Amino acid sequence: MSLSDIVTNAYDLILCIIALYSFHRLLIIWRFYHYRHQASQPQQYYTDATLPKVTVQLPIFNEMYVVERLLKAVGELNYPIDKLEIQVLDDSTDETQEVCQQKVEQLRQQNLDIHHIHRQQRQGFKAGALAHGLNLAKGELVAIFDADFVPPPDTLLKMVHYFSAPQVAMVQARWGHLNRGYSQLTELQALMLDGHFVAEQTSRSRTGCFFNFNGTAGIWRINAIKDAGGWQHSTVTEDLDLSYRAQMQGWRCIYLPDIRVPAELPMEMNSFKSQQFRWAKGSSQVAKLLLPSLLRADFPAHIKWEAFFHLTNNFNYLLMLLMLLLSLPYQLYVMPYSWQYAIFFYVPLSLVTCISLVSFYLISLQQPRKTVFSWDILRNLFLLMGVGIGLSINQSLAVCDGLLRNNRDFIRTPKHGVIGKKESWIDKKYRAAKNWVPYLELAMMVYLVLTIAIAFTNHHYFSLPFLVLFLTGYVYTFSLSVFQTR
């Protein structure tokens, strides 16, 4: 077999695998529309006298700019005061401790059952804090809100009735976005998250497939947590890990897309990349930890296949990076192939990938409001696909880290409490850690420019739109990473 055959066969195989994940994305879209009217309903509604006692856990680590906003919102929750306990799980090492203590004291004066719990060591990070608080909890249920979230007053009362069914372990609300319109970056993040919360979570939950607790804006039955083995910090996505373990034990989880709990999106590209790195690394760790036993277990085939695509979805980034690295030799060695090859193989598979992504995120724009298609939406969708490609190095490193290393350090995402466009996060204390990924992105930009030049010289015009999209994504992620760091 010649070198050209090896290159083209490897490139085509990777493209086919990526297309397989794209077809799965189309299946999610079909399931979403097919089951769109089959929303979950409570088995029955509690009366005021029978409402279960709820412990609200607020895991916090160095969140001085947002913690007071969170505590104010939690203090306004509309739930019987004698059936509500609040735990401020504060592992902070900076001024956040003092802010928490002062606000907790104010809330105590409102007769709230609230406790400021501080650990000297962050053993187990967020999972360790949640487990520590659970040992002290008085409630039957536990609601969890991260520091950057602002739960509306009626959040608990809207969600708690679903626990009237004894087999329900967890109820998850949809994330909203406090600062969606702050910048182009926050708009793209909101669109990306909406695709997950509108299409993926709804599709999986309504078809009986496994789906995940998102770490916040949800309520758990404490007995279900214990039955599933409790909070564990063997991965950096303890929420995904616990969700799968509970569902493998036979517990049921419910997703409520009509209940929104807004949160703050990361302001800077490096913080966003750090967050995405943790999520990709964690899902890879969970796949390595749980997927083999899940596939061997006695579950229906559609649940196993959905779990496989769910837990390995971030492997797409690694495949994409390999495809990008092969793109230059592919342009050199593809010359012997005819134009029919491009039209009937390369172009259709590439278009399937693009169409599935565009359709996936268009759903989130249409739900629940009826959004009119515009050039702004088209631009955002184009940039979103570009950012997904631009993240391929960052996410590929995360996937490899999750599969090959046992590092379980939890790196939190800095939040600044900035909502309005006239506010600035530049002078805030918390910033994402610097790393060497932008240098790799710069090298990839040079590599793609050379690839585009060769494709143009060899008259491979079908490849040019996709190569330009790849380059756009890397230019955007690299430039923001460097500019915002400076």
Word description of this protein:
With 486 residues, the chain is an alpha/beta fold. It has two domains: 3-32 and 313-484, no CATH class; 52-268, Spore Coat Polysaccharide Biosynthesis Protein SpsA, Chain A (Alpha-Beta Complex). It contains 16 helices and seven strands. It has a seven-stranded mixed β-sheet with strand order 3-2-1-4-6-5-7, with helices on both faces. Strand 2 (84-90), helix 3 and strand 3 form a beta-alpha-beta unit. Helix 1 (3-34) runs parallel beside helix 12. The longest helix is centred in the N-terminal third of the chain and has 32 residues, at 3-34. The radius of gyration is 23 Å and the shape is globular. The mean pLDDT is 91. This is Glycosyltransferase. One of its GO terms (molecular function) is glycosyltransferase activity.
Domains, number: 2
The whole-number mean of residue pLDDT values reads 91
Alpha-carbon Rg, integer: 23 Å
Proportion of residues in β-strands: 5-15%
| CATH domain class name of the largest domain | Alpha Beta
At the third CATH level, what is the topology name of the largest domain? Spore Coat Polysaccharide Biosynthesis Protein SpsA, Chain A
Going by CATH, the homologous superfamily of the largest domain would be Spore Coat Polysaccharide Biosynthesis Protein SpsA, Chain A
Termini separation comes to 49 Å
Q: What is the level-2 CATH architecture name of the largest domain?
A: Alpha-Beta Complex
Query: Can you list the strand order of the major beta sheet?
Result: 3-2-1-4-6-5-7
Major sheet characteristics: 7 strands, mixed
Q: How much helical structure, as a percent, in the residues?
A: 55-70%
In N-to-C order, the SSE pattern is: HEHEHEHEHEHEHHEHHHHHHHH
Unreliable stretches covering 5 or more consecutive residues: none
Structural class: alpha/beta
